[in-house]
Amino acid sequence: MTGRRDAADRDPRALAARLVTAVAAEGSSLARLIPARLAALGGSRDRALAQELTYGTLRWYLRLEPLARQLLKRPLKTRDRDLHALLLVGLYQLLYMDTPPHAAIHATVEAARVLGKGWAAGLVNGVLRNAQRRGAGLLEVLDGDPATRWAHPAWLVEALRRDWPLHWQAVLEADNARAPMFLRVNVRRGSRDAYRERLAQAGIAARPVAGLAAGLRLERPVAVDALPGFREGLVSVQDAAAQRAAPLLAPRRGERVLDACAAPGGKTAHLLELEPNLAELVAIDREPARLERVRENLGRLGLTARLLAADAADPAAWWDGRPFDRILLDAPCSASGVIRRHPDIKLLRRCSDVDQLAETQQKLLNALWPLLAPGGILLYVTCSVLRQENSAQLERFLATQADADSQALSPGWGRAAGAGRQVLPGDDGMDGFYFACMSKRQS
């Protein structure tokens, strides 16, 4: 059994099937699976192929799955979930990749043998060849259901239609597109223009992002090790929408700042890059392992902050009683705005999760508000596109906090959404984010 598992982990298609199974059937997260599992593959081309097959199959899982059911004469047994996932990997290659069909089918059949399912070689071959003949006609019928057409869970399609009646289809399409790669130049170490020139010398084309003093968008993604000075802290990878948080909070010299729910630390670092002369920046996260990522990111950039493994919703356990001038609450959310980067969200997130997350967000807002000094500012951020977590959340909070005032955010980016502004996935290439700024009245 161990030898078979090792062999599967060295075959890109078999490994992709295993990873898809871990997400779809076992509820595992790609973020936890991918780094270690891809390491087993020897060459960079195999790693890239396995990643493309895994992410692509999950991105289109909810379209490929009903197609596979139509093509199979009878459902596969539970113990053959990896084989079922391999069929979806094969369908993804036929429908969405440039691999010649005969090569894709042959390699997928061989992957079935690698998985120890040699008895199913004929089944895999037959299903995929049948897909070549009948797939287009079957999909034409299946795509009558918007959830199948755009490969999103039905509950999320309905939520988007309700919340964004003029934009829901554009959001769904953006979720299925590949996200561009954005960089944030460390302005403490050099200008954006100077770093752009270094990129050009390395053969990497980039253009500035409007409205972001440190933002660059690459013409095509590259490995981080290919970025000049990455290891030395000259630049970080961060979506352009996420780069808006620190400038909106606008920390000033001598202030005490709290970054709640800080991991993995991109916004923490950006705050320190914008204002290196803070009195203190406290970054907290519930999970010590995630907080270690914050420490690593700050170390690479030559930055320091006070890191606490703590529950932001329970200040009594960690707050020293000294108020903060600025608070960044990057709240836990459905992550419905970053599906294009994390397609497993489509399978892992449930409608009921949103209600629970909304309660957590409200609990965090109510717990952190007393920590803010009079005249101070709290910036509420989510990577969600759902009104329940965003504008409705702020409406509820402002109605219960007599000393809270919403601060208008400058136009020219995103769109007005209640007390804040919403960036939808694909807007100027960005991920979906919500921002709302509130100030505490002076007594």
Task: Provide the fold topology.
Layout: H1 2-8, H2 12-24, H3 30-38, H4 44-59, H5 61-71, H6 81-96, H7 101-114, H8 121-142, H9 146-149, H10 154-163, H11 168-175, E1 182-185, H12 192-201, E2 206-208, E3 215-218, E4 235-237, H13 245-249, E5 256-260, H14 266-274, E6 280-285, H15 288-301, E7 306-309, E8 324-330, H16 345-348, H17 351-368, E9 372-382, H18 391-400, E10 404-407, E11 415-417, E12 420-423, E13 433-440
Parallel strand pairs: 5-6, 5-8, 6-7, 8-9
Antiparallel strand pairs: 1-3, 1-4, 2-3, 9-13, 10-13, 11-12, 12-13
Helix pairs in contact: 2-4, 2-6, 4-6, 5-6, 5-8, 6-7, 6-8, 7-8, 10-11
Structure report:
With 443 residues, the chain is an alpha/beta fold. It folds into three domains: 2-145, NusB-like (N-utilizing Substance Protein B Homolog, Chain A), CATH 1.10.940; 182-237, Sun protein, domain 3 (Alpha-Beta Plaits, 2-Layer Sandwich); 242-440, Vaccinia Virus protein VP39 (Rossmann fold), CATH 3.40.50.150. The protein is built from 18 helices and 13 strands. The strands form two sheets. Strands 5, 6, 7, 8, 9, 10, 11, 12 and 13 form a nine-stranded mixed sheet that branches. The model has no long low-confidence stretch (mean pLDDT 95).
